[in-house]
Amino acid sequence: MHSQGAIAVHKLEHLGKTDNGVATLRRMVRSAIRDLNKGIEPPRRMPNAEGQIPTISNDVIMGLPSQGGDERAARRAFGGEVSKAVIDTMALPHLERRAEIERRVLKAVAESSRTS
To answer: What is the pLDDT of residues 60-94, one digit of tens each?
Structure first.
C-alpha cells in the first residue's frame, strides 16, 4: 500500500505568499462542506459542447515581454485579457477552445508590444 504520508495539520504549516491559492482552495472546500451539511448544494460547472467540464487552470502559460514603465500594471492588464479569454470560451469544444484562447493571448501580446 502506498500513501502520501500522514495527514498534515494545516494550522502548523507556514504558508508563504505563493501558497495563497492553496489556502484559498482549502477555504472554499471547507465552506462547501459546511454548506453541504446545511443541505446547500455547491455550484456546478456547466459542461462544454462535448459534455466535459472545462478547467480554468493550466490552460495558458505565456511570457510577457518586458515593456519598461509600469510592469505591474501591464502584467495585470495582460492577465485580465487572458482570464477573459479563458472564461469566455468555457462552452467551446476542447480543441476549439484551446485555439481561441491561443489566438486571443497572441493578439494581446502583439497589442501590448505595440503600446510599449
So the answer is: 566 677 767 788 888 888 888 888 998 899 889 98
Cell triple for 37: 451539511
Rounded to 5 degrees, what are φ and ψ at 48?
-80, -170
pTM assigned to the model: 0.55
Residue 47 scores a pLDDT above 90: no
Distance CA 22, CA 27 (A): 9
Q: CA 22, CA 38: separation in Å to the nearest integer? A: 25
Residues whose CB is less than 8 angstroms from the CB of residue 67 and which lie 6 or more positions away in sequence, other chains included: 74, 112, 113, 115, 116
Which cell numbers hold the place of 61? 502559460
**Helices (H), ranges, 1-116:** 20-37, 71-88, 94-114
CA angle 39, 29, 84 (to 5 degrees): 110
